[in-house]
Amino acid sequence: MFEWIDAAGDAVMGGVIGVMGLVGLVDEAPSRYPLDAMMAGFTEECQLSGALEALWTSAVNGEALVLPDLGEHYFGDIQVRQDEEFREIRVPVEGEWMGHSVDHFALFAGNDNGIAVLSVRFDPTDTEVAATFAPLAQASAAKLDTDPENYTEVSTAFVSEGGLSQYYCDFST
């Protein structure tokens, strides 16, 4: 009977928040999700933060995505492409990492064969991304190559070809 109260209340609350944002009382949400905390360690020998590991594990296991705090409005629905050897799971995101726009995560999960790759794909219009990430990938790869505890031979690289720029870590066994 009073359903209109709920809708009217939502409209009033939205207007109040909008006005508060105009006068500086409420911080406006960023246009892109800040991924720096989630990606912490990824460029240092492919370390995974808890948030990145949770996202990866939930996506690969076909569960509801475990998103980082306040990330629900920035992450899209996953897309899965089944290949004979692996599944490619794309997680769209309107994100920013180290000042560069991230388009999506690409997760590769093998079909009982040990393939495990996590790739961060950047906005194809960002022409400066290589200057930031190529040196980081080279330094991380050099450390991984000489790490005596890198038993599974984890590898990393930054690749930019065919309009696609990506930083990836290959955890395949």
Question: In words, what does this structure look like?
Answer:
The chain folds into two domains: 1-30; 32-170, no CATH class. It is 28% helix and 29% strand. Mean pLDDT is 87; it is low at 1-22. Strands 1, 2, 3, 4, 5, 6 and 7 form a seven-stranded mixed sheet that branches. The chain has helices at residues 3-22, 50-60, 129-146, and strands at 33-34, 79-82, 86-97, 100-110, 116-122, 155-161, 164-170. Strand 6 (155-161) and strand 7 (164-170) form a beta hairpin.
Structure characteristics:
173 residues, alpha+beta, 2 domains, seven-stranded mixed sheet, 7 strands
Brief synopsis:
With 173 residues, the protein is an alpha+beta fold. It folds into two domains: 1-30; 32-170, no CATH class. The chain contains three helices and seven strands; from the N terminus they run αβαββββαββ.
Q: State the assembly state of the protein chains.
A: single chain
Kindly report how far apart the N and C termini lie.
61 Å
Order of helices and strands: HEHEEEEHEE
Instruction: Please work out how many helical segments DSSP would assign.
Output: 3
What is the strand content? 25-35%
Q: What can be said about the biggest beta sheet?
A: 7 strands, mixed
Q: Could you give the topology of this structure?
A:
Layout: H1 3-22, E1 33-34, H2 50-60, E2 79-82, E3 86-97, E4 100-110, E5 116-122, H3 129-146, E6 155-161, E7 164-170
Parallel strand pairs: 1-3
Antiparallel strand pairs: 2-3, 3-4, 4-5, 5-7, 6-7
